[in-house]
Amino acid sequence: MKKPLVILLLISSFIYAKQRLVVLDPASIEIIYLLGGGDEIVGIASLQHSNIYPEDKTKKLNSVGTFSNPSLEKIFSLKPSLVILSQYSLNLQDSLEKLGIKTMFLEANELSDMKTNIKKIGEILNKTKEADDLIVKFEKDMQEFKKDSFNKSAIFLFSSSPLMAFTDNSLIADILRGLGIKNLSMKSEIQRPIISSEFILKQNPDLIIIGIGARDIKELITQNEVLKNTNAYKNGQILLYDNTHVLLRLSPIMIERIKEFRNFLSENLNK
Question: Confidence band (pLDDT; 50, 70, 90) for 92?
C-alpha cells in the first residue's frame, strides 16, 4: 500500500510544483497576482513611467531590467521555468530557448484576447477555476459600462506628428465601443497606421482624442488646419489623454483604468 501512495504523492508534487516565472509583460504580472500566483514570480521587467499592480508587492520583486530592454544574463541567473515575453522582448525568444528556457508570448491586440490570456495563465498556475471566475467578473464589469454609455463618435490618435491612429481592430477601439463611442478609424494589419487630416475631416468625429505622442492641441491644428472644420474642433472636443499607455495593458485591472478614462471624457463633455 505504501508504494502506490508514494507514487501518488510524487505525481501530485510534480503536477502542483510551483513555477519560477520571469514575467516581462506587465499585464501578465497583474493577471498572475489576481489569480493568487504572485509567489511564483521570481523576476519582472520594470516600468519607468507607471506602476504594476499590486505595487506594494511588485516593487519588491527582482528586476531583470526595463520593460523595453530586459537583460538576458539577469533572466538566466534566476533559473526560470518559464519566461512570459512582451512585444518588446520577442527578440530574446531564440536566445532563451537555446539556453533551454521555455518562453510564452500572449497576444494583446483586442479585448477578446483577455479571456484567452487569463485561461492560459490559469493553466500554468493550476488555477483554472480562479481563471474562470476572473473572466466572469471582468465580463460583468464591462457590461456595467453599457448602463451609462456615450452616444458619440471618435478617432483616437496614438500620435499627432505624424497622425497615427489606433485602428478599428485594436484594443483602444474595443474600449471606445464598450463606452458607447463609435470608432471611426479603419481596420488594418498595421497596428497604428499613419492617416491624413483629410481622412479625419471626412469621418468628422465628435471627439478627437490624442494619446501618447502628443504635446498640445494648438500645434496639432497649426500643422493640420483642415481639422478646424471637424465637429470635434468646433465643439472644443479635441482632447489630450496622458494615461493612454495604461489603457493598453490588457489585464482585468484595466476596468479601473477605463473608469478613469470614462470620468475624463464625462468631465470634458460636460464643460
Answer: very high
pTM: 0.89
Round to whole Å and give the CA distance between 131 and 72: 30
Contact (Cβ atoms closer than 8 angstroms) between residue 134 and residue 125 = no
Nearest to 46 by CA among 61, 36, 32, 30: 61
Give the integer Cα–Cα distance in Å for 151 and 149. Answer: 7
Q: Of 112, 84, 108, nearest to 96 (Cα)?
A: 84
Residue type, 257: R
Rg for the chain, CA atoms, rounded: 22
Type and span of the H or E element at 98: helix 93-98
Q: How many residues does the chain have?
A: 271
Each residue of 170-223: pLDDT tens digit? Answer: 999 999 999 999 999 999 999 899 999 999 999 999 999 998 766 678 888 999
Specify whether the CB–CB gap between 106 and 28 falls below 8 A.
yes
Q: Is 110 helix (H, G, I), strand (E, B) or coil?
A: coil
**In the beta sheet, which residues pair with residue 43?**
22
3-state secondary structure of 260: helix
What is residue 194's DSSP assignment?
B
